[in-house]
Amino acid sequence: MAKVLIIGAGGVGNVVAHKCAMVSEVFEEITLASRTVSKCEEIAAAVKQRTGKEIATAQVDADNVPELVALIQKVQPDMVINVALPYQDLPIMDACLETKVHYLDTANYEPKDEAKFEYSWQWAYQEKFKEAGITAILGCGFDPGVTGVFTARAAKHFFDEMHYLDIVDCNAGDHGKAFATNFNPEINIREITQKGKYYENGEWVEIDAMSKHKAISYPNIGPRESYLLYHEELESLVKNYPTLKRARFWMTFGQAYLTHLEVMQNIGMTSIKPVKYQGMDIVPLEFLKAVLPEPSSLGENYTGETSIGCQIKGIKDGQEQTYYIWNNCSHQAAFDEVGGQGVAYTTGVPAMLGAKMFLEGKWDNGAGVFNVEEFNPDPFLAELGKYGLEWHEEVGGTLPHSYE
Ligand code: NDP
User: Fold this and answer.
1) How far is the CA of 51 from the centre of ligand 1 (A)?
2) Which atom of ligand 1 is nearest to 188's Cα?
3) What per-residue confidence (pLDDT) applies to 299?
4) What local confidence, expressed as pLDDT, does residue 373 receive?
5) Degrees (nearest 5) of the Cα angle 210, 213, 218?
6) Which CATH class is domain 146-338+381-395?
7) CB under 8 Å to 149, separation ≥6 — which residues?
8) Has the ipTM of the complex gone over 0.90?
9) pLDDT in tens, 334-371
10) What are phi and psi of 64, to 5 degrees?
């Protein structure tokens, strides 16, 4: 029986709150805190209606360490689940250190003024977390998150050496809006407008954003144009699996999305550099976020599904081995269950399950800072389907796309 403090009441926070409430044999007491307390209250009311479970709410500015410390001291959680924005990772980790409370998040720290997507800042907390005797679980959403657990399963059960890894991420859903992002628009647009990058033969190869793409065929969906992006889990995966010769990440985008994005980039709306407007400093991307639909509002008429998986090639018992492991998630089913869309669902379920694994002692690497692939994948994957994300695998098949 444990107490958790969830920070962030957006699309993902809504799913985590619902899922923890549905597993009340583990998450006995739940507090949901965020900058705008009315959003926490709305979620708490929805959770009560769907599950019958009461959850507490609180207001917090998670950029402010003393405020966080005061809240943690009041709530006394066993673990903080951080599903606010990447900017808040370090203040929340600092507050966890001060109060000696375990930590989990779904996205790596980002400084506000540069798009970096790297783990260096959080990995630098390793010694401090060890000394404090607490654990940080980094990147426990879907990607990063389940993609790391999938890779860990491949390494543990199907390969002596993994050589080629392609993470393939398709959203074949339709929310009916001209342009909207499926998770926080600021982070999403920062991620896809930065240079593309992949790992090959010990080096990172940089390419122009969206310049490499091809049709990849996804289970139950078919071929979709997929673009090579840099995604943060590549950094930890190539570190933890040094036999990898190449690691890439592909994501689908529709033409209408790309056209909107191009126009917004061309007119400067995606910039993270402040501009002066009527005497004030305004960050164009922050303003753009304010006029775009909230990701948490997209669920109601969202049709179609996501498909995210790992395609791996390497060696087992001296023979070439191929392996594909994936999950497909229906936006509509997610909405029916927790009132959110599939991208929030595929992030929130693993965050709940990672916390559950840790609190039950099934993920026990001792104190320190860990990426998800460093934990035992078996107990997590044994329960992932039960909590809504059924997965499938094909061993030794013909990989559908990418080994040109
Ligand atoms: P949203 O923008 O919908 O929600 C973010 C929430 O964080 C909002 O409730 C917001 O409050 C709150 N917040 C922002 N700043 C602060 C602050 N200073 N103090 C307290 N609360 C704050 O984002 P999502 O739910 O879509 O995403 C949540 C996280 O999940 C992000 O870090 C995102 O990168 C990550 N993610 C990870 C994925 C994965 O697979 N690993 C996939 C998708 C998302 P307010 O309402 O006041 O703005």
Assistant:
1) 23
2) 34
3) 87
4) 98
5) 125
6) alpha beta
7) 350, 372, 373, 375, 377, 380, 381, 384
8) yes
9) 999 999 999 999 999 999 999 999 999 999 999 999 99
10) -110, 105
Query: Atom of ligand 1 at shortest distance to CA of 187?
Result: 34
Paired with 138 in beta bridges are: 371
347 CA → ligand 1 middle, Å: 11
Ligand 1, atom nearest to 39 Cα:
46
Contact 344, 173 (CB under 8 A): no
Question: Where, residue-wise, is CATH 3.40.50.720 in the chain?
Answer: 2-138
CB atoms within 10 A of CB 16: 34
pLDDT digits (tens, 9 = 90+) for 58-70: 999 999 999 999 9
Q: Under a CB-based contact definition with an 8 Å cutoff, are residues 21 and 55 in contact?
A: yes
Nearest alpha carbon, ligand 1 atom 8: 10
- Assessment of whether the complete model's pTM goes beyond 0.90: yes
Which phi and psi (to 5°) does residue 214 adopt?
A: -165, 165
Ligand 1 center–CA 323 separation, angstroms: 33
Separation CA 378–CA 38 (nearest Å): 38
Residues near ligand 1 (Cβ within 6 A): 8-13, 34-36, 39, 60-63, 83-86, 88, 106-107, 141-145, 183-184, 187, 295-296, 343, 347
Q: List the structure tokens of 89.
A: 């990772």
Task: Give the rounded percent of residues in the chain with a pLDDT score beyond 70.
Answer: 99
- Round to whole Å and give the CA distance between 97 and 103: 9
- Residue 393, helix vs strand vs coil: strand
The C-alpha atoms of residue 199 and residue 179 are separated, in whole angstroms, by 31
In the chain, CATH 3.30.360.10 covers 146-338+381-395
Instruction: Determine the distance from the C-alpha atom of residue 396 to the mean position of all C-alpha atoms in its chain, rounded to a whole number.
Output: 28
* Ligand 1 atom at minimal distance to the Cα of residue 61: 19
CATH 3.30.565.10 fits 2-138, yes or no: no
Question: What are the CB-based long-range contacts (under 8 Å, 24+) for 34-40?
Answer: 34/7, 34/8, 34/9, 34/10, 34/59, 34/60, 34/62, 34/84, 35/59, 35/60, 35/61, 35/62, 35/84, 36/9, 39/9, 39/10, 39/13, 40/9
Rounded to 5 degrees, what angle do the CA atoms 24, 29, 33 make?
A: 120
**Which of 35, 37, 71, 119 should be mutated for ligand 1, with most atoms under 8 A from CB?**
35
